[in-house]
Amino acid sequence: MGANHSSARGTFGNGGQYQQPVVYAGGAQAQGQRSFQAHQSTFLGREEDAQEDEELQIALALSASEAQNRGWTRPGEASGSHAGEASTSGSRLAPSTSQDEEFARRLQQEEPSAAEPHVTPHVTGPSSATVPSSPAGSVIGPSEPKRAAWAGNWSDSCAGCGQKLSVLGVPVTSFIEALGKKWHPGCLRCGGCQAPIAGGMFVIGKEDNQGYHPECYKHKFHPRCAVCSDFMPVEADGRIVYCENGFWRDRWCRRHQADGTPRCTSCARMRPAGEQWVPLEDGRELCLACIETIIMDTAGCQPLYNEILQFYDQMGMRLPEKPPLMLVDGTALNEAENKEGREAGSGSAPVFHTRGLTLTVEYRAIRTVAKGHGGPFSIIPHMVNLPGRSHTEVTAILVLYGLPRLLTGSILAHELMHAWLRLNGISGLSLDVEEGLCQLMALLWLESQDLSQKQGTWEERLASFFAHQIRTDTSPIYGDGFRGALDAFQKHGLPDTLACVRRTGTLPV
């Protein structure tokens, strides 16, 4: 007895499921209205009694429509006739209060299990699993409504306003069924624009299980580019492909990887179109958040340098001398790196590549002279190996200028570990062991910072980002080296780890 609906399917975005509300404006509702009207004349002139016996009136209304379904007939009514309509013999039903009451009582005495359940199957549209990186809504096709029959519930209420929609299975107003609930047509509203969405396809957002117009769902959940603010382009096969920062979760179109869009030299985020950043003279740019604690010159870095030297003291690693510290630009740092014989970018971590350098001079032998045989003023030069360990001097620590305090400090903590090893006569280590220990000290310094008064601030997030960079680095030298050093530190502690390195040149297992 339900209203006729055409089945439809569709996909949206990365392929969810559309749904079309089931409308109960005819069918069972119309029949219920006809049944009620057929018996309404029985109660004319008895307004007060009708108000007192509302449930009985509704049962009477049901009796006529149930009579045919259950095979009941009344005197003067041919089998198969509808309430309020002509019988097969052409005669109309004569109103009879006593007979109607009897039918109502018989109906109310029926076991609830005998009532036909209200079943509303939904036709689910195709769901695509090819876009795991993009949010998707569920899109469900329309369903074919069944006859609304009483299944033991005295009434159904609108999920939106709470008003009654039907009583004893008889609809008292038009309604729709969607999201597993019943609604007035105007009460089912879009989770985006808040306008009614009855009467057409809509999207069920898997993010919040609300209904949306397809366009409203797209505007709310379809990923946008952090650079140009456009919707991410959809590939021909329906996939949405984009780039994403693993820590900040910023997403951007792939084309921005090669179109010259600048990144912040500190936090590595891409610059949004139209946003003004701070350009440095060597071509780098910093976002507005990272410049709050920027350190620009050598003099301005001295308090931080002293703080990190004190941190080394607290860790039981006092340096025998204080190496000179200088903040330099990128060109000077790269030139110094090349003179040291290090290939730029060889196994470097993202945060530390060409941002810090420790300059050392190591002496293993000294060229000396002895008196020759050619006369009183002749000499013979020769090399003399130094006894014990080699002698090393740390001539300078270079750090890139124009970085925020936390990044500058972590670079300094890293470079001071190189200095500590050299000044303690520990040399000849493999690159992964030495750089791993330096990264460990950078992380320990970051984690020693008291940011309890800065929870939720940019500085706290930046500290987490730099620590994340160290922990997740995939390079064999810096990344694997750090994880080896961290494992040794957690198992044996820092003093025993350094003692093993001094003794064997390797990390303890």
From TrEMBL:
Q: What is this protein called?
A: LIM zinc-binding domain-containing protein
Q: Which residues form the LIM zinc-binding domain?
A: 156-223
Q: Name one GO molecular function term.
A: metal ion binding
Q: Which InterPro entries match?
A: DA1-like (IPR045218), DA1-like_dom (IPR022087), UIM_dom (IPR003903), Znf_LIM (IPR001781)
Residue ranges crossing the lipid bilayer per the database entry: none
Question: Looking at the record, which segments are called Disordered?
Answer: 1-144
Write one Pfam family the protein is assigned to.
DA1-like
- Does the entry feature the keyword Metal-binding, yes or no? yes
Task: Report the SMART domains cross-referenced here.
Answer: LIM
Q: Which PROSITE patterns match?
A: LIM_DOMAIN_1, LIM_DOMAIN_2, UIM
Which portions of the chain have biased composition (kind: Polar residues)?
30-43, 86-98, 125-136
Q: Does the keyword Chloroplast apply?
A: no
Tell me which Gene3D superfamilies the record gives.
Cysteine Rich Protein (2.10.110.10)
Species per Swiss-Prot/TrEMBL record: [Myrmecia] bisecta
Organism classification: Eukaryota, Viridiplantae, Chlorophyta, core chlorophytes, Trebouxiophyceae
Against PANTHER family, the record matches this protein to: PROTEIN DA1-RELATED 2 (PTHR24209:SF7)
Sorted alphabetically, the keyword list is: LIM domain, Metal-binding, Zinc
